[in-house]
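User: Could you check the structure of this?
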Amino acid sequence: LARVRAELEGEVRTREHRDNRLSLDSQEVAMLREKEHQLRAEVARLLAQTEKQAERLKSAQERLAGEQHLVTSQDLKLSTQKSRIAELEGSLALASEQSGALGGAGLGQGEKAESLRKELEQGRREAAGMAARLAECQASLAEADRRVATLGAAQAQRWEEFCRMADSMKNLSSDMLSQGQANRTIGGHQPL
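Assistant: Sure, the predicted structure tokens are below.
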């Protein structure tokens, strides 16, 4: 009788211990599920931010391409204008030379030289304006380059955060799986 009583008390203690452990395990599983829920929400938030950053980066890259095209266009116009100025300077020098050689008889050549001088000055003013516009375009291009680099760095940071969150979720899932297997081993019960 004493032996049966001792076995019964041992069985009661074993069941109480198992029930206490199952209760603690159930609480731990509930906490892990809540943590998983929070991590999933954080992953969704980071993914949305990453997609938004990607759109901003794409937009900035498109603006950068437009700025590069504008700089190239202005550079070509300036080169064309410089060539025209060089041509006008040559024509003016030739007209001045011819006017000097003809003396008084070259009145028509003097008018032509004056016309060429005016055209040359106009060309120089236009070239100066184009050079100023080119400098503005280059400054705008440099700013666009800076924005693209900043957005690229921000997107890389978001991806790192996203990957860390994914790793955390993977670890949490592994912990939950291990906990579930431990619960089944203890009492043959399914986790709550």
